[in-house]
Design the sequence.
């Protein structure tokens, strides 16, 4: 393992076997993420982004290739990993704090010992006064924040996020990006983030990996050297616009090559 690499994906291929044609979802995919890095993956719909993330999360088996986290091969879900899905997937019969505590229970750890941490995380995501609310009493953005707190409760080093803000309105989405950056800076997590919003990827990332259309692989990586912390004003800066333009060109060129 390269020193400081939290995640290494090498030569990954995933073929879905169904009763129709086998579906090659990911092929020849390589990516690595260093400690504390924020890396985004962008790619067209259906190119295999969720498939890649599911393999990294240990929820889906690779057909070929190697995925390792902190130097050891992924064979199933791991406690070093937290996952945020596109939909919040909260359990409707549990209140907010109990939802946040789900990974603690699943890992067989002491729930009572984590209650204060759950409360602190809810405060961090702006829901300090909502611990006893039920999911149906929250807006979509609030539910997604609960999902984020839940992904952080067992203090994972690696946070995987699959289009976590896709279902939110534009204003909420922008605010969530700012909050995520603050959390990432405060807690020094390593993040692998999937989005199909180019500005969102540029705003958040140290590096952006662009995937080809299906079967997807990482074709190009672009470093984002905008100073941090990035602020709302960053979105209006010429440097930001230039990076968005560069990524968009790359994205379109890859889509064209494979059309
Ligand atoms: N469980 C599955 N069985 C068969 N094919 C699947 C399954 N999940 C995804 N696929 C196919 O694999 C490809 C990649 O899907 P996915 O990883 O969800 O893409 P993305 O997240 O980039 O939109 C798509 O063609 C999709 O139809
Ligand atoms: Mg997806």
Sequence:
């Amino acid at each position: 393992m390269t020193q400081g690499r939290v995640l290494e994906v090498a030569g990954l291929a995933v073929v879905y076997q169904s009763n129709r044609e086998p579906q090659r979802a990911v092929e020849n995919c390589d990516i690595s993420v260093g400690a504390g890095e924020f890396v985004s993956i962008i790619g067209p719909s259906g190119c295999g982004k969720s498939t890649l993330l599911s393999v990294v999360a240990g929820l889906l088996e690779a057909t070929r290739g190697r995925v390792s986290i902190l130097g050891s091969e992924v064979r199933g879900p791991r406690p070093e990993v937290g996952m945020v899905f596109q939909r919040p997937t909260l359990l409707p019969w549990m209140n907010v704090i109990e939802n946040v505590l789900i990974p603690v229970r699943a890992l067989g750890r002491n729930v009572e010992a984590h209650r204060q941490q759950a409360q602190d995380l809810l405060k961090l995501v702006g829901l300090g006064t909502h611990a006893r609310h039920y999911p149906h009493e929250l807006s979509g953005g609030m539910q997604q924040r609960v999902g984020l707190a839940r992904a952080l409760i067992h203090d994972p080093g690696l946070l995987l996020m699959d289009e976590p803000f896709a279902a939110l309105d534009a204003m909420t989405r922008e605010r969530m990006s700012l909050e995520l950056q603050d959390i990432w800076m405060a807690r020094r997590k390593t993040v692998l983030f999937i989005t199909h919003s180019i500005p969102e990827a540029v705003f958040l990332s140290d590096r952006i990996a662009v995937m080809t259309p299906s079967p997807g692989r990482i074709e190009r990586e672009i470093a984002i050297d905008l100073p941090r912390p990035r602020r709302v004003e960053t979105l209006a800066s010429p440097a930001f616009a230039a990076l968005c333009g560069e990524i968009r060109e790359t994205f379109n060129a890859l889509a064209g090559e494979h059309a």
Summary: The CA atoms of residues 1 and 72 lie 9 Å apart. The chain has eight helices and ten strands.
